[in-house]
Amino acid sequence: MRRIAVDAMGGDRAPAAELDAAAAAVREGAELEVILVGDQPRLEEELARRGVPARAPLSIHHASQVITMDDAPAAAVRTKKDASMRVCFDLCKEGRADAVVSAGHSGAMLACGLFVLGRLPGVDRPAIVTTLPTVGGSVVLCDMGANVDPRPELLAQFGVLGGVHAQVALGRTRPRVGLLSNGAEESKGTSLTREAHALLKRIGADPGLGLAYLGYIEGRDIFGGAVDVVVTDGFTGNVAVKTAEGAGLAILAFLKEAFASSARARLGALLARPALQALKKKIDYAENGGAPLVGVDGVVMICHGAATAPALETAIFQASRMVGHRAAFRERLAAAVARTQDIWQSNGGPDRAASGGVE
Amino acid sequence: MRRIAVDAMGGDRAPAAELDAAAAAVREGAELEVILVGDQPRLEEELARRGVPARAPLSIHHASQVITMDDAPAAAVRTKKDASMRVCFDLCKEGRADAVVSAGHSGAMLACGLFVLGRLPGVDRPAIVTTLPTVGGSVVLCDMGANVDPRPELLAQFGVLGGVHAQVALGRTRPRVGLLSNGAEESKGTSLTREAHALLKRIGADPGLGLAYLGYIEGRDIFGGAVDVVVTDGFTGNVAVKTAEGAGLAILAFLKEAFASSARARLGALLARPALQALKKKIDYAENGGAPLVGVDGVVMICHGAATAPALETAIFQASRMVGHRAAFRERLAAAVARTQDIWQSNGGPDRAASGGVE
User: Fold this and answer.
1) Given CB atoms, is B226 within the 8 Å cutoff of chain A?
2) Mutating which of A242, A249, A276 best tests the B interface, going by the most B Cβ atoms within 10 A?
3) Domains in chain B: ranges and CATH
4) CB B307 within 8 Å of CB B290
5) Does pTM top 0.90 for this prediction?
């Protein structure tokens, strides 16, 4: 049984979306147990209204507090000890749950991950790894927002984190890794990307790591299928992913306009509707699952604040699959980080990359 | 007559795309003259093959050299004095042309702008201003790639450059300006964006500037219509714009797949085809016009290397319109920059923002 702790008070639509997602997940998913963490009386009432019994595989664990978007992450994690999010992490730490899923404050998720679960051996900072659809497949982007001002060594380590994730979770045998920049030429980039580029070259040159480093890529290469892993700092990665989301929604709106432009187009749209709805589902971020926080000692799935019930349900299944991969991921990452620590030591040492606190 | 110097040797499809664009532009555009700059014998031959006479309003100006993507911008501008791109700028400087259009090396365009035309009074660094379609209108983004590592003062000045461009070229009376970040909360961003945010607040508070500063925006807000001007550094701006382009092309590919998924969807696609082609034109960057280099003393239009003939034709018309706005833009920018210089002086002085060379 994989036990997923779901922060029932986290997202913009909490607890309704979380409850619907959990109820659907345990109905559909075999060997899956969901622990809803939050205000017990309220959650019991909401479950009763849905005609769902509040017992395993769908149980409730009481938590009296909630971390809001106004909370400072580090302080909230330390002072709101009974917050639904924090309690999810505690359940994992105590071995009473195998994974955390939350659509709450992502900064607080990172803080909980660091503070409660801690980092995996050799990892300087955890990162958010998101999976995006491409023409013909998918691509992994690391970091999507956990580290906004990383040092070059840390940026290079995101290549290892994202690469090992692509190996284990996506089954890519030798993931192609690209560093996001403002042009493909080596003269492009910032001092940060140029230093990270030099380190990633060395990482790519080590056949024992199984990572093919292709150098700089541009924004438009993210979705082109030429790479499996996009390496970037959390600021740029966050901007890129959200810009793609915004562009996707704008194009859906343009498409609606185009379809409304003539009687002929309206008929065409009517016929193509089922196909278009599948497309919308693929593009709309509120309908997509979560992004794992990789590098902490546990399985943590960060969801959009606006995540819908189907998105949260997907995130619960993703978390369950990651629980299955966890041992392989830990082992592979530990080996990879040990090899790359060696590379970094000749470049000033890993300490340079370590940084405390939550940004 | 507005005289547009077109770098006929610049883009990936040069000189064919440039020649087709120029021929179409002078055929359609009133009061428009195009000077094709490049290898005269070759251009004459290509024009003859098209049955187009090589005389005004479509003349040829010989240039024996070409700046390629392998050239270092600053060196190329100084040493390749007879390069087609450089000669376009010289024609402007000498008053023999009113604007430059090129799909060549954008770094070299910036270097030519700085070296040949120079900066407008009070402008620290020119920036690339691109216009993107939004739901219900358009948005201006500044900088799209001219300055990858700007200081906060420079980033704040991009708000003024982009804002005045939106006022004059797009007719927005009080443009809403947003600073691109990884979240809307003030605690988000990098040290660069946080410092620029404080400066932009002061700029927004000066009613004489006519700019409404709304604070941080996220990537997904770019296309939502809530702002007229997106302020960002050239690295992030370049990544954001190219990511949106890549997402757009991927979505077109997904759409194609969706339309091929059933007989019903195929029929729908057939009926909606004209509407979909209009959509493709709106999204596909190779079919869109150029982005002006704003802040140099002249009208300069930077096009995609992959720009098609229709895209270059659009850029020629854009350049022509900008020639019409030039006096108003200069005047308004000079006034705005003078006011903001005053704001910056209390913050360490404008010298801190000045930087030489081309990145």
Assistant:
1) no
2) A242
3) 2-117 (3.40.718.10), 127-285+339-353 (3.40.718.10)
4) yes
5) yes
